[in-house]
Amino acid sequence: MLNDFQIKQLKAKDKMYRVADHFGLCIEVRTSGRKFWRYRYRYLNIPKMLTIGAYPEISLSYARDKTREYRSLLAQNLDPVTEQKKALDSALDAIQHTFKSISNEYLEKYKDTHSQEWYENRLRYFKKDIYPVIGNKPIKEVNSNDIRVILDNTITRIRKSKRGTGEVKAIYVRQICAEVMQYAIITLKIINDPTIALRSYIRRPPVNHATPLEEKDKKVILALINQYGGTTGTQNALRTALYSMLRTIEIRRAKKSFVNLKDATLTIPRVSNAQIKDGKRNMKKNRTHVVPLSTQMLEIIKEQLQLYPDSIYLFPGDDGISMLGKNTLNEALVNMGLGHITMHDFRATASTYLNEQNYSKDWIELQLAHVDGDMSRASYNHASWLKDRRQMMQHLADTIDHWHE
């Protein structure tokens, strides 16, 4: 058997040669003088040889350990060359097939068949909640406990930001993790989906339906909006929610081109099927919706047109160009000390008040852009009762202006 002194004394010759150690292990000395550990064996009576590594980088003791490992494989009727290749492939697979790399592959494959909003929402939650925990982890090694940690972290993050209790977001995060895992299964990257065990881990909180504002909130809300430290555009968007009965998404997506100052209307058009596919729906229901504008709303819109000349949006975000953020208005309510109120409550308040004033249910439902089974197509003609609804909305706006009294 060899020792280190003997190995160091081996010199290069005109031809490569090998010196045996034990049990098939030998040191190969090349004409360059470099030395390599080689293991010679027979598998299915066929002579084979594999390289363990260079000496002295690979020590004598390590080479002997590898030899014992290979002999153990042969005793199990396994070919060391084949098993070594499997190990290398597995290591390479772990490096190439991290959760992050597979999720990026998934997004790239499906982004053209989904809306931009679909793509951006997933990318945002990958970066915020998922990648910090499992982004660099081989997807084969992601387990149910990893997913549990992600969900718990998501809930903690949402609660710290005071944007809710976090359960709904956590359920959504589990869902997009599951999408990636299902993609990994069908592309033969993994066998099992670790998100399945977490299906019932987070309980969806009970839905809090919109409720009318209490009298104490009515008395202060306009003053708080006026004093709010955010942009004038955000203030005007909040006022619009009070005066117009529009949904938050309708306010956010409202464009200057929707406005007709001469007719004092804001007309939200329906969009094409292709636009719906791209997430560009203007209304909850894809119908043309005409909103008669009170004098208060006209003043708000005129101010917005002056403040934000470079944006296509009537109520752009903080940069004055792009669409108002999804959570901006609800966050503003929180910052004003009105975290118990949601934007949905504004519509409930207006609807309740107008019903109490005995306005036509059809007028109110049209203003809310509601269509139920009892409302005929004729009733939903987008210009229906426009004059009557204009008078109703002016009454509402004037009433709101006197809430503080």
TrEMBL record:
Keywords: DNA integration, DNA recombination, DNA-binding. CDD domains: INT_P4_C (cd00801). One of its GO terms (biological process) is DNA integration. The keyword Ligase does not apply. Pfam families: Arm-DNA-bind_3, Phage_int_M, Phage_integrase. It comes from the Bacteria. GO terms for molecular function: DNA binding. Residues 208-393 form the Tyr recombinase domain. The keyword DNA-binding applies. InterPro entries: DNA_brk_join_enz, Integrase-like_cat_sf, Integrase_catalytic, Integrase_DNA-bd_sf, Integrase_DNA_bind_dom, Integrase_recombinase_N, Phage_int_M, Phage_Integrase. PROSITE patterns: TYR_RECOMBINASE. Belongs to the 'phage' integrase family. PANTHER family: PROPHAGE INTEGRASE, PROPHAGE INTEGRASE INTS-RELATED. This is DUF4102 domain-containing protein. The lineage of its organism: Bacteria, Pseudomonadati, Pseudomonadota, Gammaproteobacteria, Moraxellales.
